[in-house]
Structures are given as C-alpha cells and as structure tokens.
Amino acid sequence: MVTIGIPRAGTGQSYGILWKTFFEKLGFNVLFSPETTKEMVDNGVKHCDSDICFAIKIYVGHVLELKDKVDYVFVPSISDISEDAKASKFAIRPERIKPDKQFLCSYHTALPYLIKNMFPDTKLLIGKLGSDRPEMRIGLFDMMSKQFKKKEPEMQAAIKEAWEADTKEENKGAEGNADEWKKAKYKIALVGADYITKDKFCLMNMPSLLKKEKAILRNMNHPRKRSEMDRKTAGFYVNWEVEQDVIDRYFDAIDWKEIDGIIYIMPFSCGPCFLFQEQVINENNEKPVLILNVDESQNETRIKTRIEAFMDVIKGKKKGKKK
Amino acid sequence: MKVSFYHLGNSWIAFKGMMEKLGLEVVKPPKITKATLAFGVKHSPESACEPFKYILGEYHDILEAGADTIFHIENRSEQACRIPQYTTGPKTILEKLGYKFETIPWGGKNQKELLKEFKKFAPNLNMISFKAAQLFCINKLRYIEWLEDFVNQLRPYAVNKQNCDKLMTMGLDLIDKAQNIISLRNAKIKIKSMGDQIKVDKNKKVIPVMVVGDLFRILEPEANQHIFKKLGEYDILPYRSFYLSQHLRKAGNIGPWGKRSFKYRYKFAQPYIEKKMAIGTLVAVGDTVKELKEKKVKGIIHLYNFTCMPEIVNSVIFKKIAKDFNVPLLSLVSGEHELVAHQDTRIEAFVDLLRK
Predict the structure, then answer these.
(1) Does A77 lie in the same domain as A59?
(2) Lower CB count within 10 Å: N or C terminus of chain B?
C-alpha cells in the first residue's frame, strides 16, 4: 500500500484534514508529520537560504522528517485559481482572469519546486491547487489521475466526504472552552496566519505566561465573512489571501468588545505582512497591540519581558477606564 | 493637466511617445539622484524592496517637477510578487504627505475597460487611435531594447569603449524623435551604420554570460550600477532574458503575439519550476536553461533585491542549474546601501574565475 506523507506545517495546518480524508478514501495510507520540534526547525534552517521566510523553513524541516518514512510527500503549490482552471482538462468552464484576484505569496506558489531543487532525491507528489472549493478539486484530480490513474467518479465521492470532514473540523474549533473564557480577567486575541497560530512551537510558552497574569489567549481563526466591496471601502484590501485573512482577524478583534488586547504574530521576514502591518496597526490602534516576530531563536526571556510589559499596558488601560 | 512617469531605464522614452500620441502634455521625468533614493528610503516601510523605494522617490521628483498625473504600468493578472501593492502604495504615502495627484494605470484589464479609464484624461479618444498609440509605444520599446542589446553586444569588441556610450545616447535621441514606425525603421538603419564605423577587434576573446534578475534591477541602470556597461568594459558579452515589450503586450491584452514564445521557453524551465511567480521569473529560468543547453553562455549573473520573494525562490533554482551545468553563478543582492566599489570587486573576481 502506498503511503503519502502530509507535512503538518504551512498550508497543511489549514487543509490537512481535507487532504487526509481525500487520500484515505482513495485507498492510500496517510501519515502526518509530528508536531514541530526544535530539532526539525534546526534541520530546516540548516538547509534553507537565510533570506527565506521562517514559515517555509519550518515546512522544510517537516518534509525532511517525513522523507524517509513515506513513499511520497504531498507538497501542494497553491496560487492563483484561474490558472488551474485553464490548465486542467477537468475544468468544465475555464473562468476568466479577474483583475483583482487574490493569491498566495510566492513561497507557497513555488514551494514544491523549491523543495525539489533543494533535495533532488525526495519523492514528491506535486499538486497545483487553487484554494477555492471547486478549484482544489480540479488540482487534486489532475494530480491523482496522472500519478495513480484514478477514475473521476471515485474521486468525486472522495472529495465530497473530504470537504464534509473539513467543515466539521472547522466548526469544532470555533467553540473553545467557555468556562475558562468567563473566568479570565483579561481577554487577549491572537492574530496571525494559520501556519503560525496553530503551531505550538511558534507560540512558545506564551499561553502559560499569560495564564500567570490571569489572562486567556483566544485564537481568532474564524474571521467574519466580508464582501470584497466591504474590504475596499474600509481601505484594507490586499492582494494576498492569507494576509487578507490576517487583516480580517485583526479587525474582528478590534470590533469585539470583550477583547482587551491583541497579539499580532508573524514569521520573520514575511514579505506581505511587513508591507502593510505598520499601516493597518497605526491607523486602527484603539486597543493595545503587541507585534511579535517569530524566528528560530527560542529566547524565552525576550518573550517574557515583552508579555509583561504588554500586560502592564492592558492593566493600566483597564484601571483608567474604571475611574 | 501634465502627465509624467517613472524611468524604468530607457523605457520612459516609449511612454512619452504614447502619451504624446494620446494628446496629453508631458513633463520629462527628472534624472535619478541620490536624493531620490534617500526620499524613498525615508518614507517607505522598512522591509519594502529597493524598487518600491526608487519608485516612491521618483514619484516625489516628478511631482516636484510640476506634473499632476502619473502614468504607470500595471499587471495584476498572474503574479504573487508584491508589485500589485506597490502601485497603490506610493500614492497613499504621498497623499499623507500632502501631495495631490491622479494616476493612470496601464495593463491588467481588457481594452474596453482601459479605454474608459483613459477617456477621463483624453475625452476625444476612440478605440482605433487608442490601440494605435499603445502599439506605437510597444514598437518604440522594441527598438529601444534592440538598441540596448546592439550596444551591449558591441561594447566588449570595441577598441574604444567610450564610442559605444556616445552611440547609445545618439541612438536614444533618434528613437525619441521618431514619430511613426517608418521613421523608427530609418533610425534603426542609421544607428546600424553608425555602429559600423566604431572600430572593433573581432579576434578578442569575449566570454558570454547570462544576466537574469528582477525587472527593475535589469532595466534601471541607476539601480544596477550600470552593470551592462561594466561587463562590456571587462570584455564580457551580456545576454539578458527580460524584455519589457514582450510582457506589456501580454499584460495589456493588446494582441495575440508573444504568447507562443513564452510557452516555448516555459518548456525549458519545466524540470526546475512550472509555476509563474512574478513578471519574467519563469521566462528567466527557461532562457537560462536554453542558452546553457546550446552552450551559448558560460556563466550566470543573478541580480535581485533584498526581501524580494520571487527572486529568493529563483536564487535557489539558479544554484541548482549552475550545479547541473557546472557553470559559475554570481548572485548580487542589493539593498539601498549598495556601494559601486563593492559590486565592482565582486564582478572582477567573477571575471577572473570565468577566464580560468
């Protein structure tokens, strides 16, 4: 039986369950990589160029971990949707390119090729996907029919169940622990891309540090749905899908009255984030914001000092309001 | 209303031709100086790449020179580079500083929508004259690119290198003056005859090298510290893969030409990368592999900017290509602190390596 490995990093954090169910329904064994460890990150950093985004370095670490354990490592290239629709024979009606299409950053677009050129001996399963619902179907079908000669009806049934599993997973995360939420004195929102906020390595010991300060951390990973028009008139429309999500989460946290402070977390040298975060945060600074850059140096004292200072700001602000 | 545009090397001559054909008043963009970059660095986000800083500085220079409308090229259809944000970025920054101006974006949309936008500035415009003006611009760009290649490939052989610089300025002047395609063709003939008069030493051993990189550093001599000129002085024959006219044709949806040549070059890139990232990244890989397979070039020079995402990916791929074909690779990363002497030393060392 063929085993496919899915790295638990990058886009695998948001779509992992979907891909897992899809492959399993088609009769493959699926192996997730374990949670990120220090060793994996060091491995990734060692093999990457120094300029590359930290999130990609983690991804490379995961791929190296999986490499010898599985037959294929599934590395998707997620980018513009319309191109997939054009390229694939499964496309029913090739969509026209919209001028304001959103896409993922170039690292995610070129991820499989990056890994292919760095480690030529790894067996990769490259899927050219779009992140939209029907389009991810096209990319996956194309890949599976080329590599394993699977038939379309079989795949249609599999992808349907996969999407169901994915929505189930999403709804599960939304509720959280209500009791702790009520007890906590200070409520803090965590804003960032999925591949950082869902990764415990990147968060370091932040939740426990906040617990000592009687605060609770809430991951804002379910943004309110907004229309394109809504975004444009509010003046925070960007061309990247993931980063647009991050901005939406930030504004959700600002609008939510219970939230006392916001932690804005991002990987070091994330190209798109560095461009606009300054502008977005400077213009909407009603609540205290802590901007954290994650990189491979795991200095706990640094985080501790920053969190303490941040908590002092929040406490001061709350006291000021009561008076 | 006065229109102006940023340089992009010598491409501004073509933009000027187009604006004049559309019947708009043009302000010549002032030369790039150190103050231009200094202004850009001062007011842009810290990790924006060098082109953003240059473009912001140039916008400022243009507005100070008296223009109130800025024309710029735009391609939003198929890229994951940060360029789409860059077209709106300088505007918001300058508006905060108190400048008021309008922009005319060109490309990325279909012709009908574009015409609607241009009609705001030139009310008497119709489809035929609009298309003619765009085609004229692209033709002019082609002649400029031809001239650049002609001079760059003549320079390594020339006995007196300064004559080539003179030919360049005279040629650009001739192309600038040409008002229709026939006079452009005549200018080309004239430049060729002028080129023949330059003394050359055909027995000289020159080393062909591929120069690839992001569009701004390839096009703008101020940003790449006149690298093509410098390479010519070291008796190196530079080939380049990026031609703006080819991309503008496609991005502007003006005509069907140029698409086939792209697909042809993508085939060569396939063993390494299959996805487009930004303008010209995939073509650059394809071209390099093609030239290396034909044994036309003996080395690769890769120019890119600090924090440029697509080119960082490409740098990994070029490393693999250089390893596969066993040729030397020089990666020149630049930020705003780049020194001329620094780059020269690295090029000199690279040339020594190539000679041996």
Answers:
(1) yes
(2) C
